[in-house]
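Issue 218. Parser rejects a valid record. Input:
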Amino acid sequence: MKTLYERLQPAIHAEVASTLFPSATVHQRDARQDAIDLVQDVFVALLARDAAVLRSWDPERGAKLETFVRMVAHRYVLGVLRTRSRNPYELEPIDFEQLDRIAASEAAIESRVDARTLLHQLDGELDERGRGLFRQLFAEGRPTAEVASSAGMTHNAVYAWSARLGRKLRAMLDVQRDSFQANEPKDSRDA
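Output the parser choked on:
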């Protein structure tokens, strides 16, 4: 295997690099690391399924082994470049700061979605008076004294209602969190 690698690697590397170079130039990228990765991929393709591709070489058809593997490497790299998901130049690299901003944005969106779901559930649990208290206290941010006066309630009654609402919200959040964790793939919980 070592002898085979030493014999074929220069031809495969040369073909991979020459096939990759135009795309790398257009995207203003250094093709060296991509070429190294693709050389390994070509070897994997040659040796896959008990070396089926490599065994398909027939010296009587006129091509030397190196010429044959160069053709395989050329076709392999073209296939990679034509496939959006495998093309190393299709995606632009993202720096860590940008990834952090994306993660923060996703978390903010998820929390808004969770809040909407929670508010929708809460709306179903509250009666008309409860919806009015919630709207005045939390949505409009009115002082407790003003809400108590407008609802014909005492301060203590509004505080007691608010405390019950807080316990209900925590219970709903726990159910929502447990539901999310139960549906989350195991691998992401272990990370």
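Fixed in the parser; the record now loads. The first helix runs from residue 2 to 26.
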